[in-house]
Amino acid sequence: MKKIRIETSRPYDAVIGENVLENAGTYMRESGISAQKAFIVSDDTVLSLYGLKVKKALESAGYKAYTLAFEHGEKHKTLATAEKILSTLCAAEITRGDVLVALGGGVAGDVCGFCAAIYLRGVPFVQIPTTLLAAVDSSVGGKTGVDLPQGKNLVGAFHQPSLVLCDTDVLRDLPSPLYAEGMAEVVKYGMIRDEAFFYKLAAREVSVEDIVLTSVKIKADIVKNDEFDRGERMLLNFGHTFGHAVEKASGFTLSHGESVAIGMCIAADYAEKTGVCAGVLKPLAEVLSSYGLPTENPFEKAELFNAMTGDKKRFGDDINLILPAKIGRAEIVKTPLEIFRERFFAL
Ligand code: GLY
User: Fold this and answer.
1) What is the rounded (10 degree) CA torsion for 170, 171, 176, 178?
2) Strand 151-158 and strand 143-148: pairing?
3) Contact 327/280 with Cβ under 8 angstroms?
4) Is 256's C-beta closer than 6 angstroms to any atom of ligand 1?
5) Can you name the residues that pair with 64 across neighbouring β-strands?
6) 344 CA from centroid of ligand 1 (Å)
7) What's the whole-model pTM score?
8) How far apart are CA 301 and CA 341, in angstroms?
9) Which atom of ligand 1 sits closest to the CA of residue 185?
């Protein structure tokens, strides 16, 4: 078992290793979570797989444990789901001295974290990610929120968890498409920060533990410098501005990870053709394909452009593009929208 300290305005640990689920209550007590009640929020699929195990682990550490499951899937990451959770918290008389536990993938983490941010103006919560994507990205760093019909993550709050518990046994058991989805974010870390890690991934020389540890360390380092996403943290959006457009254009039939994989390739192609870098797209596409991820954009540029320019990362008449300078380093390139349009359509 390894621990990584996440240095934010309210520092906490990410615990990564085997048998973490069955010891979740002990880790929570050790980290100083002295609550009486622990309220587990999950989706129906994850709750049926791991709910009982986690509930027992919390009860054996002296917590009175409750569970609530919402229907799985991004389409349930809504204000309506949050409202149901909030009402159930009221009914169970959860107070600020209690703790919520987000058990699941990115949707459970985001929606439970959002409820923790706003219920009674803020209660503590623990993240227990059960997908690779949630383990390496969404469970760390305190971004919480829900979607609106107009777009993803349009409502939310920064609210750091008190603890992240990542069980690598759970990640090893993931079905391959779910694992591949997380690998898109993992490759992203290599691309933006760590050339050696990128080539280890390409050579398949990294264990699941090392994949999570290295990714979380990179994310922790970036979040420490820019918790509230005003500068450096935008690097984590590499592949995401294009990727969100791809995801939307696919009518959400492509997963987030698949869309980010395509988005990173579009960004690399754009960067190469506009002279920001050279020789990046080929190794990037090769490593993504080797993990079963798509690399070709099947959509019209106009469709992507329209989706992108409605993206929340756009500031005024400029768009913040995250472009690779080389393997292992990315840059934030603020570009006037008109110039971006010209260059993007010329690709
Ligand atoms: N998922 C990107 C971030 O946490 O900033």
Assistant:
1) 100
2) antiparallel
3) yes
4) no
5) 37
6) 25
7) 0.95
8) 10
9) 1
Distance 36 CA to ligand 1 centre (A): 31
Cα 314 to Cα 146: distance, rounded to the nearest angstrom: 19
Contact between 15 and 32 under an 8 Å Cβ cutoff? The reply is no
CA-to-CA distance for 25 and 110, rounded, in angstroms? Answer: 21
CA–CA distance from 99 to each of 24, 38, 153, 184, 267 (Å)? 13, 5, 23, 31, 40
Among 214, 176, 209, smallest CA distance to 198 is for 214
- pLDDT of 315 > 90? The answer is no
CA distance 190 to 270: 19
Q: 236 in ligand 1 pocket by Cβ < 6 Å?
A: yes
Amino acid at 107: V
How is residue 328 written in tokens?
């292992």
pLDDT digit string (tens) for 332-345?
A: 999 999 999 999 99
The runs of H, that is alpha helices, within the chain are 24-30, 44-46, 52-60, 79-91, 106-118, 132-133, 168-172, 176-193, 195-202, 208-225, 240-249, 256-273, 281-290, 301-309, 337-345
Backbone dihedral angles phi then psi of residue 345, each to the nearest 5 degrees: -75, -20
Which residue lies with its CA nearest to atom 2 of ligand 1? 236
pLDDT of amino acid 316:
73
Spell out a b/e string for 328-339, using b for 16 or more CB atoms within 10 Å of the CB, else e.
Answer: bebbebebeeee
Atom nearest to 143 CA in ligand 1? 4
Asked if residue 137 has its Cβ within 6 Å of ligand 1, the reply is yes
- C-beta 193 within 6 A of ligand 1: no
Instruction: State the pLDDT at residue 312.
Output: 52
Which amino acid, 227? E
If one residue of 218, 229, 247 were mutated to test the ligand 1 pocket, choosing by the most ligand atoms within 8 A of its CB, it would be 229
| Helical pair 256-273 and 337-345, crossing angle rounded to 10 deg | 90
